[in-house]
Amino acid sequence: MVSRLVWTRFGNEGGWMKTLVDILGRWKIEGSSMIPISGLAYYIQRPYSPSFVYLYPDAAIAYLLITVIGCVLFAKIWVMTAGMDASTVAEQLVKQGIVLPGVRSSPKVIKTTIERYINTVTLVGGFLVGLLAALADFTGALGTGSGILLAVTIVASFYEVIMRERALEIYPRIKRFLGG
User: Fold this and answer.
1) Closest CA to 106 of 87, 81, 128, 80
2) In this model, does residue 130 exceed pLDDT 80?
């Protein structure tokens, strides 16, 4: 969007504005739509069909890399901010009295033990989510890849809430453990 605005306003300028337009992207007008033909806008445009991947493999690979790297970074940030990092989980395990076989019940020791697992799962999960979203875009699935992921996430969270409420109804003593 920024690229389109800059190109529309300063597309024929010279000097540093030409360099900025070249970096952000140049556009081609086809009928009533504008299509990016160079710059960042060209590489981050959403592929709209399998033929796009065949005709523009460089843009498809760049889109795939940007999507996967973005999802991996988002997953890493999410784990750190949501309290799912190794140190927080280790403290929770010690507070609940859960011990790992063969490991001292110390938050530092448990942290070093589970840290590599949490980091690996985070990176692999982010990679697979990014790959799924990009491949859904490449195949022209119903909606976009991120739209499909959002729908699946919403349905899964509703399922978890319903199952938790059902478990609390069936087993009322679980309320003490879950803080209900």
Assistant:
1) 87
2) yes
Bridge partners of residue 6, in order along the sequence? none
| Mean pLDDT of the region 151-157 | 79
Q: Which residues contact 36 (CB under 8 A, 6 or more apart)?
A: 3, 4, 25, 26, 27, 28, 42, 45
Q: Poorest-confidence range of 6-10, 63-67, 75-79, 82-86?
A: 6-10
Distances (CA, A) of 19 to 39, 59, 62, 159: 10, 20, 21, 51
> Which of 95, 119, 120 is CA-nearest to residue 107?
95
Domains of the chain, residue spans: 1-45
52-60 CB contacts, 8 Å cutoff, 24+ apart = 52/138, 53/138, 60/138
The letter for the amino acid at 157 is S
Structure tokens given for 7: 């190109």
Handedness of CA 118, 79, 138, 35 (dihedral sign): negative
Length of the chain: 180
Taking each helix axis as running N to C, give the angle between helix 145-170 and helix 107-139, from 0 to 180 degrees, rounded to the nearest 10. Answer: 130
What would you report as the CA-atom Rg of the chain, rounded to the nearest whole angstrom? 24
Burial class of residue 44 in the structure, from the number of CB atoms within 10 Å of its CB (0-12 exposed, 13-18 middle, 19+ buried): middle
